[in-house]
């Protein structure tokens, strides 16, 4: 729903609109988490004067709202296959995660109205406001509202698990000639690249369209560069290093039993993450020439 040249996709998952609507849940690229928070502060819950941010617990909103994106999410292929920052969201009552009639012959307007207690129009309007405001922020401002620091937490958690696993295997003698610091150094490179983009944003003239365009190119490289170039898109379509499925993912490395394969997977993951950091950093001489 955003401009095509910026390749940002926003998906409204209305199959999740169900009775009560006490909760709002979303699965999204970490690049979009900050934008979700800002948007929640400006949109009210259905049939309520409270903002979505207030209703979901303010500082506790991430725990209540955010879900790990799975293959069942309609936006998942855009994120894990194409490397496009994406989001799926829906409204649910307490203790229910999905619309019970989705994918069945009972998925019709009558049952939807019943599940929303005949407030389907209010819930739909809220969903439209939320998606519309996110879209406006993405296409109106010269600089994309994507937070490259959003991946710091997920990357750190994944690298820590691998570091602990590799360190244990190395000390026990099961794994040789492998250092658990390899991936950690790539993590450090990502952090420095993310901080570099944040510093550039803080010190730039946001009315300078050309400077913003160049910085937007660096920001948009993040998600796509996290797609592993070392696996076949035919055999492993969901190539995302953190959110994909396959032996190339950081989660798979933690569970690896074959030491030779683990060594190869660790090396490829390290190069993948380092390549992402390099793409984010850009070439300073090319940037200066373009400006």
Automatic annotation (TrEMBL):
InterPro entries: Peptidase_M28B, TFR-like_dimer_dom_sf. It comes from the Eukaryota. Signal peptide: none annotated. PANTHER family: N-ACETYLATED-ALPHA-LINKED ACIDIC DIPEPTIDASE, TRANSFERRIN RECEPTOR PROTEIN 1. This is Transferrin receptor-like dimerisation domain-containing protein. It comes from Ameca splendens.
